[in-house]
Amino acid sequence: GSMQVGDYGNDIYSMPLTADLNIEIGRSDAFRALSLTKNLPGSFFQFYPDKPLMLSLDLEGNIGDLQLCDGRVSLDSAFDFAFSGEAKNITDPLSSRAVLRLTGLMDNTDFIKMSMDSVGQQILMPDHILCSAELYYVPDSLLGLLSLESSVGALEMSMEYCLSRQYYSAVLSADAINLRSVFPLQSIGVVSLQAEIDGVGWDFMEPI
Description:
Elements: E1 2-5, E2 17-25, H1 27-37, H2 42-47, E3 53-62, E4 65-75, E5 79-88, E6 97-106, H3 110-113, E7 129-138, E8 141-150, E9 153-162, E10 167-178, H4 179-182, E11 190-200
Antiparallel strand pairs: 1-2, 2-3, 3-4, 4-5, 5-6, 6-7, 7-8, 8-9, 9-10, 10-11
């Protein structure tokens, strides 16, 4: 990877910034890092793909207008995600803006399932999951959109969080989710639903 910062004296806001990052994390290095964060079962490492984790991205612009281009994170035979974004006025809390966009495919989730407990391992996760997500930051608020599509149905969620008030809200929509395919030991069929939640603060015993 490389990074360049132009010499613009005290005018740091117009000073050009560029970065080119390419990272490859081998299987053994990933195992060492994962073993520090969680006591994962041996089955997780058994199903973990025998390929390096790849991360690349390009940054260009300046503090007033920063662009994230050609971002990608992938693990061969497991997942492949592309991401991009932009940020405006990142040093000014009153006018800063940012957006991060992500699209990709999860193609093999066995090693993720094997990191769960015995109950979680009974879940049959679909092999191909199309994912798209957008995360927005505006002064004092975070907004998020998530969409998942697979052979068992489609799921969409929108979220909002106000930083100063600790107010949160979310809307979840499920379209024809075949739960029997996901939970084969349960007598559940196809489900469609829409659910909404909102609240203030994270002390759930305190009245709003």
